[in-house]
Structure formats: structure tokens, C-alpha cells
Write a structure and sequence with these properties.
Elements: H1 8-17, E1 41-45, E2 48-51, E3 56-59, H2 74-85, H3 95-107, E4 113-117, H4 120-135, E5 139-143, H5 160-164, H6 175-180, E6 181-184, H7 189-198, E7 203-208, H8 224-235, E8 238-242, H9 254-259, E9 265-269, E10 279-283, H10 285-288, H11 307-318, H12 322-346, E11 351-355, E12 358-362, H13 371-375, H14 379-391, E13 394-395, E14 404-405, H15 412-435
Parallel strand pairs: 3-13, 5-6, 5-7, 7-8, 8-9
Antiparallel strand pairs: 1-2, 2-3, 4-10, 9-10, 11-12, 12-14
The structure holds (4S)-4,5-diaminopentanoic acid.
(4S)-4,5-diaminopentanoic acid binds next to helix 5.
Length: 436
């Protein structure tokens, strides 16, 4: 590998724009919401990433969640090298899928049967198809600001990159598809009851991020998830938890374990692939047995259950431990408190929404509990904050509407570096504000 060079990332971004739309393969990476151009990443280890210019950053994106154990962990790279030497794809069953499936069920007992796919988007699209087939109904309730991948049915008032770019309902989603997608307000059971009343006996599924992470982190309020469970039972609607972010992160059994609410179907991704492309959907046996070839609901994939991805996922799940969750909680609390203190000391309004090892700082004086309150925050201030952090060697998400992620490779020192950088950045923001 040639040595890093100053200006290499900027040159690569220019070159990338001549072949990749916007220079990237996933929109938020282009930094359009925060300004500047993205560092191109050359390598990563533990809690740090290094760019093509030779700069090192403490990483709080962690590939948007999968890297709960940190980057390039020796146990994982050894397991992958061993698996790769035996072949990288067979398009035929392997014991690895069975072992990973059993590991998922041990951790998340609601997943009585599971189907592995290659992304979270595939998982949610397939779960919705299954819910429609099983219920004989078409409509789906989602929540404004929740993001369930880029399937047409879910790109209506979606969070994550869609909100970051200001296109929460994407062009290209047909009116017919959008009409079957009903949008409620997160943390507002009354808005859900109203939709069930108006669309009585027509709602196949209700899909929710049990811990919202794609309008920034927004935890469920007391009774919200229990209320959704009760409403779904009352209306014969299938409750789908999108645990692509929260699964295996907020506790070994995900948000459903943490909050004590059992969904009918669960969508998984990120940690379950240990950093390789994987998704999964699973849940009640009677529903999952309707998936082909056990049943008639069609869904297939050449790379589904890929041996490298299954190896990485199995390794990631096998490394989860009570000590890891205790450490993540402690670091998460330290970072959230540190950011809030830094804002108080510099006289800036900041709300830090945090849950375990995920958090989002919002520049606002008001609580953030749903999409409307998230999008009312000062996103220009977040962009200034982001740029200040980046120049001080900290890599937060390049969007207000994404979560910060910690890993087992982060240390108190990494977190304190972020807090020091935040204090310096906020002081500079405050000085600039006083000047104008
Ligand atoms: N918006 C995605 C995470 N919620 C970003 C994925 C990516 O750019 O890698």
C-alpha cells in the first residue's frame, strides 16, 4: 500500500464523483448536510479510523452500528481468513447458517424461525411481504422519522439519510404504494389509535424502531411499546420490530428484551453480520413457516447465508457478554454527561438523547421525543459542531439524524478526548455567535 498523502481524500472525492452518484454509495457519507468533503478511509483498528491523508480519528460512527467490538478485531479477522480459505460463497446450505440461527434464537427467543438475507432493507421488505400475505391485508403503519431501509413502502416520511437530505418521501415511490403506508407520530399512541380506527381491518403490519435511531436517538416513552402491542393484538395486526440498530446492542436480546415487549416479527442487521453485509427477519413460527420453500411467500438471494457473513455474525454474537454491556453503558453515560456539561459550561442549548451505547446531541432547549421535535432542532449548529469535532480528531455521524455508536474498543480516554473536543468546539461556536 502506498503511503498516505495530504489532499488524497479530496482528490479521491473528485474522482469518485465522476463514477459514483454524489461520489458515494450511501448518501449521508457525502457530508452534504454538514459541509466539507469526506475523508476516504484507508484502515481502521479498535476505536480509530485512519484516512488516506494519514489523519487518525476516534470513530463514533463505527460503520453505523455493526462494529460493537471495535474495528479489525484479531479474533474476527482470523475467523474470516479461515472461512475465506474454504470458499467465499457456495449458494448452498452450510452449517454456519444453522449455528448463527440457533445463536439468534438463544438471545432473542421471539425469533422462533429466522431467514438470513443480505441487508436490513431486504429484511424489512420481506417481513412486510410476509405480514401482508399472512393477514390478507395491504396497509402498513410506520412512524414519521423511523427508517426501515429504502424499500418503497418505507420511504414515506423516513428518517436517516432521507431526512438528512430533505427528501423524507422519495421521488419514485408511486402514489399507490405511498397510499398503503400510514404514518403515525412516534411516542404518540393516540395517532396510532386514530389510524387503526380509520383503516379498520385493513392494517397488515405496524413496523417500529423500538428504540428510534434514525431521527437521531429517540427512546420510547413509558408505555409506548406496550401500547403498540396491545393495539396490534386488538386489531389483528402483525407487530414488527425493526431492531437493525437496537438488536444485540441495547442488550443481548435487543430492545424487545430491554423493554419487555415481544413482537411477532423482528428485522435484524448490522451486529448480526459483524461488519459484513447481512440482514435477517424472523419471529413467530406460524408466520415464518409461510416463507418459501416452507410456504408460498417468495423470497430468495444468491448471497443469503453467505459463509463469510455468517462467520462474522457468529463471532460477533459469541463475544457479547455482561461485561461488554456494562462497559458500553458506563461509556455511554460518560459521553452523554460530558457533552451536556460542555454545552452548559459554554452556554449553548443542547439535549443529549442517550440510551446505553447510542446517543445523539441535538442543539435545542426543548426535549426531542418525535420527528417534529427532532427536525425543529438547530441542524446548522450540528453541522458547525461536526466540523469542529472532525478537525479535532473526532469522527461523529455527518448528520444530525443519525446515532453515535460506542464499541467495546472505546476507552475512557477516547470518550474524554471527544468531550475535550466538544468543549473546545462549543467554545468556538459560542465566540462566533457573540461576534454576529
Ligand atoms: N443512513 C445510514 C445509517 N442509518 C447510513 C449508512 C451508510 O452510509 O453507510
Amino acid at each position: 500500500m502506498s503511503p498516505p498523502k495530504r489532499g488524497a481524500s479530496a482528490r479521491l472525492f473528485t474522482k469518485a464523483q465522476r463514477i459514483l452518484p454524489g461520489g458515494v454509495d450511501s448518501p449521508v457519507r457525502a457530508f452534504s448536510a454538514v459541509g466539507g468533503t469526506p475523508p476516504f478511509i484507508r484502515r481502521a483498528r479498535g476505536a480509530r479510523i485512519m484516512d488516506e491523508d494519514g489523519r487518525s480519528y476516534v470513530d463514533f460512527v463505527m460503520s453505523w452500528g455493526p462494529m460493537i467490538h471495535g474495528h479489525a478485531q484479531p479474533g474476527l479477522t482470523a475467523a474470516l481468513a479461515d472461512a475465506a480459505a474454504r470458499g467465499t460463497s457456495f449458494g448452498a446450505p452450510t452449517s454456519l447458517e444453522v449455528e448463527l440461527g440457533l445463536a439468534v434464537r438463544r438471545l432473542m427467543p421471539s425469533v422462533e424461525r429466522v431467514r438470513f438475507v443480505s441487508s436490513g432493507t431486504e429484511a424489512t421488505m420481506s417481513a412486510l411481504r410476509l405480514a401482508r400475505a399472512a393477514s390478507g391485508r395491504d396497509r402498513v403503519i410506520k412512524f414519521a422519522g423511523c427508517y426501515h431501509g429504502h424499500g418503497d413502502a418505507f420511504l414515506v416520511q423516513a428518517g436517516s439519510g432521507a431526512t438528512t437530505l430533505g427528501v423524507p418521501t422519495s421521488p419514485g415511490v408511486s402514489r399507490a404504494v405511498a397510499a398503503d403506508t400510514l404514518v403515525a407520530r412516534y411516542n404518540d399512541l393516540t395517532s396510532v389509535e386514530k389510524l387503526f380506527r380509520v383503516h379498520r381491518n385493513r392494517v397488515a403490519a405496524l413496523i417500529v424502531e423500538p428504540l428510534a435511531g434514525n431521527m437521531g436517538v429517540v427512546p420510547p416513552g413509558p408505555g409506548f411499546l406496550e401500547g403498540l402491542r396491545a393495539l396490534c393484538d386488538q386489531h389483528g395486526t402483525i407487530l414488527i420490530f425493526d431492531e437493525v440498530i437496537s438488536g444485540f446492542r441495547v442488550s443481548p436480546g435487543g430492545a424487545q428484551e430491554r423493554f419487555g415487549v415481544r413482537p411477532d416479527l423482528t428485522c435484524l442487521g448490522k451486529i448480526i453480520g459483524g461488519g459484513l453485509p447481512v440482514g435477517a427477519y424472523g419471529g413467530r413460527k406460524d408466520l415464518m413457516e409461510q416463507v418459501a420453500p416452507a410456504g408460498p411467500v417468495y423470497q430468495a438471494g444468491t448471497l443469503s447465508g453467505n459463509p463469510l457473513a455468517m462467520t462474522a455474525g457468529y463471532w460477533a454474537l459469541s463475544q457479547l457478554s455482561p461485561a461488554l454491556y456494562a462497559r458500553l453503558e458506563r461509556l455511554g453515560r460518560r459521553l452523554a454527561t460530558g457533552l451536556a456539561d460542555a454545552a452548559r459550561q459554554t452556554g449553548l442549548d443542547l439535549q443529549v438523547n442517550a440510551h446505553g451505547s447510542v446517543l445523539t446531541p441535538f442543539f435545542t432547549a426543548h426535549p426531542v421525543y418525535d420527528y417534529a421535535s427532532a427536525t425543529r432542532t438547530d441542524t446548522a449548529a450540528y453541522a458547525r459542531f461536526f466540523r469542529g469535532m472532525l478537525t479535532r480528531g473526532i469522527y461523529p455521524p455527518p448528520s444530525q439524524f443519525e446515532a453515535w455508536f460506542l464499541s467495546g474498543a472505546h476507552t475512557t480516554r477516547h470518550v474524554d478526548l471527544a468531550i475535550e473536543a466538544a468543549r473546545a468546539t462549543m467554545r468556538a461556536m459560542r465566540r462566533a455567535r457573540l461576534r454576529t
